[in-house]
Amino acid sequence: MLSSTISTPRFVSTSSPLLPPSLPHFPLHKIQCIPRPVIDATIPSTPTPKTQVYQPFRPPPAPVPPQFRSLDANGRLEILANRLGLWFEYAPLIPSLTQEGFAAPTIEEVTGLTGVEQNQLIVGCQVRDSLVQSNLEEEVLAFFDLGGAQLLYEIRLLSVSQRAEAARLIANEKFDVKSAQELARSIKDYPRRKKEKGWEYFEYTSPRDCLAFMYYRLALEHQNIESKELGLEKALEMAETDKAKNRILKDLRGKSGDGAGEESVAKAIRVPVVRMKVGEVSEATSVAVLPVCRSEEREKEVVDAPWECGTAGEFGVVVAEKPWSRWVVLPGWQPVVGLKKGGVAVGFSDARALPWKVNRWYKEESILVVADRKVKEVTMDDGFYLVCRDDGLKVERGSALKELGVAESLGTVVLVVRPPSEDTQNQLEEDWE
Fold first, then answer.
1. CA-CA distances (angstroms) from residue 379 to 248, 302, 419?
2. I want to staple 232 with a disulfide (CB 3.0 to 4.6 A). Which of 176, 252, 274, 420 is the partner?
3. How far apart are CA 384 and CA 371, in angstroms?
4. Alpha-carbon span 8 to 67, nearest angstrom
5. Containing H/E element for 249?
6. Of 371, 335, 344, 361, nearest to 419 (Cα)?
7. What is the pTM of this model?
8. CB 388 within 8 A of CB 298
9. Which residues contact 346 (CB under 8 A, 6 or more apart)?
10. H or E segment at 189?
11. Among candidates 255, 252, 257, 256, which has minimal Cα distance to 226?
């Protein structure tokens, strides 16, 4: 049976024996707050060391060209998307958009410029600005107006003076991106190749010599004789100084004394004699167009003949640097394909006028002698060189010219071409010895 008694709460007195005896008892109304000493705020506290976060260097964005400064972000994106203007004019718009928060993928999605292309445009523009500040010739700068960002990007690691010389060579030789990359690499790599064979014969201040040394070094690594000769010929074509050319010629003709094989020596000192076939030019996949001089003429005609000739446009129109009245089209044989500049053909009415060791031809026929005007120095006794005599142009042996004290010629003979003949089946008849 439930009890109706209600229990009331019991209050424990402050003097209850339940409190620990060690704790003193203070009445609540008598507790006083003890003030703490105040620290002077003017005393500087010891700063907490902060961790330094690495921040990569980012060059300041190029100033936006005046014609684009009034455009908003959408207007600048439209300029990039439609490529309105020259590449170095709209390239500064990319870093300006990046500063406003546009990421490279966003710019690529809107404009179609990939991240690689954006980087090439920005860096190429910076390289071009350095060339402008170095007072590079206007005609050289004009070469890079169309598609020059990729070419200038390749020479970004060179110094300002090296960039100017490299830009001149790229413009003069009309290098593509791969050749420009090889040029920049050869200039940067040359000082580290001091222990390589032939290094001291090439001039570091000449970009042509640096590139020629790279071709020369790679050519010596070939085990195949034909590949080695092609590489040495490429190096010889690019070399600028005489000592570099002589070094390459010694290896090309097997006179370096480093154990070159007899087969390479014999092959290098011979001049091919080729008889053309009827209709061979029309069937050839590649051809070479050379200016023709007559043997009766003097030295001036050889000197004045165009140095460079090539094809341009969709129809392959032949374009030369100057007008000329006599031209010959030859199949793309190796000796003439390598003559990108400086090649010339001299017509002789009688082949027996040439200095053969043995008179193998018993009938009179006209021939063409193809010479390389870039290689003028008489260095090889068994070589053949184009010279001028009292009665006109002649071909002489190097040994005969050295006896007369002649050290320079009009060019080195690289090929002799005989006219087509239906009776002859072999195209390459013999070598000129």
1. 11, 21, 30
2. 252
3. 9
4. 93
5. helix 242-252
6. 361
7. 0.49
8. yes
9. 292, 293, 294, 295, 302, 368, 369, 371, 386, 393
10. helix 177-189
11. 252
Q: Which residues pair with 309 in a beta bridge?
A: 320
Residues 6+ apart with CB under 8 A from 258: 197
Number of residues written out for the chain: 433
| Helix (H) and strand (E) counts in the chain | 17, 11
368's CB contacts (< 8 A; 6+ apart) are 292, 328, 345, 346, 347, 348, 416, 417
Structural tokens at position 350: 């009688």
Query: In angstroms, what CA-CA distances link 341 with 5, 124, 176, 291, 380?
Result: 127, 29, 17, 11, 22
Token output for 76: 């600048």
Q: What is the DSSP string of 321-344?
A: SS--S-EEEEE--HHHHT-SBSEE
